[in-house]
Structures are given as structure tokens and as C-alpha cells.
Amino acid sequence: NDPFMFMYECMCKCLRPASPSSSSSSRRAASAVRFLVLRHGQTDHNRDGIIQGSSDVSRLSDRGRTQAREVGAALARLGDVRVARTFLSPLARAQQTHEILLLDRPDLPTPTTLDGLREIDLSSWEGRAKAELRAEQPDVYAAWQCDPLAMVVDGRKPIVELWERARSAAWPTLRAADTAAAEDDEGATLVVCHGSLGQALLCTALGLDATAWRRHPFPNCGMAEIDWPADAPRATRWRWRLPEEGCWQSGTAARALHLSRAGVRIEG
User: Fold this and answer.
1) Which partner from 134, 189, 212, 254 sits 20 to 30 angstroms from 198, CA to CA?
2) Per-residue pLDDT reduced to its tens digit, 203-248
3) 40 part of the active site
4) How far apart, in whole angstroms, are the C-alpha atoms of residue 254 and residue 240?
């Protein structure tokens, strides 16, 4: 019953990967703009309903270690994916996930740890149970769920700040490294990070501001694939790659849908 969703789904179905070029330079141009954004496996805090933010206390649960091992095996089976560069969050849960990936993908390149890939900064909320925060601060917790511009913790707007960090700090570093390697090295850039940060990376790549919060939530060990040409202001397409492969979605269609349904401002 949603005409915009119908239009969007039609555009997704029609979008297909470009045909391989016979020239090596064309293959490099196609592959050098690929980013694989992976959330870490489940942690003990995820399991127990505790807010993590950018704290570095939680560790992978048994389920999280299993999820990471499954991702490593999946990456080993993906014949169209060769990882040429790896970037990691400095937080232990992302580092642990990467270490487990190496069991099935020992060929992954030596990673670069990037502070801008840490999870959202939630200050005094970190280490608190979600149920307690919901009871003590119902309005703020409600904003955390669905009103990102109004969500304030300790006088700061963490979701807005996260979007700015993704756009102004994380992406420029990731894209600069990818562009520098493009002339000599085909392959994708793997980014092992977090759920909220993953949302911010995906949405800012598509040109969506912080009102797109929770539009594309990352499950534990969920991975999004993003194509962003070096000379383009925004990503041209994206899709879910794990836990299940989704259809390619046009960046233009994603912006149009979000604008129509949520009144979001399209950046740029």
C-alpha cells in the first residue's frame, strides 16, 4: 500500500552489478570503491541488555565468537570478494571479531586501527542496563529509540555527534586509503566496527542525515557492502551481504524513499 516502497523495490530489482570489463583498469575502478562494513559479534553486554557505547569493558559471548567464525567462513566462500585493506575499531569486541576472522581468512591484510571507528559515545549511559535507563529517563530513552535529534545525554547529542564523526573523520580516512591504493591494488576495504557506527557510515555514505537513525540497523556480524566511486559525492549503491545477501539498492532510490517517508533532509 506504500507507493514509494513499491517504486523503491522495483528500482532495487532492476539494479544489477555492472558487467565485468575486459580491461584491467576498468576492473580496478570497479573494485577499488567497494567497502565492507561489518559489525562485531554479540557481546556479553549485548546479551544482557547493557549499554556499551564507546566503553571497552564488554567481550564477545560464546554466541558472538560463533558468529564471527561463521563470518570468516562466509568471507572465504565469497568468490567475488578479495579484501585488500582492513580497518578496525580500537575497541576489544571489534578486535576480537577480526582475530576470529583470521582463522578462516588468514590472508586478510594487516589491519589499521582507527579511533574514528569506535562506537557511539554515550557518556554516563555506558555500563547501565537498558531497563534501568528506560525506567529512570523515559523521555530520553524514547528519543534514543526514535528521535535522534532530541536525544541528549550529559548535555551532548550523541547520535548527531556520531553522524558528524562518520562523515568528517571516518569516511575521509577510509576513502583516502582506498583511493591511494586504487592504482595498484584491486579489492575491497573491510571495516570491522559497531552497530551504531555502522549505521552512521552507511547513511552518511548515502547522503542521509542523523534523522535516518535506525533506518538500517546492523545485527551482530551483519555486513553491508557499499560502492562509492572516488570521484562521486555519495555512494552509488549498497546491499546487505551478511547474514543474508540482499539486492543492490541505488543510493538515489534510498535517499528518495527516506525523504518521502520521513521528511529527511538530503545532504549535499
Assistant:
1) 134
2) 999 999 999 999 999 999 999 999 999 889 999 999 999 999 999 9
3) yes
4) 13
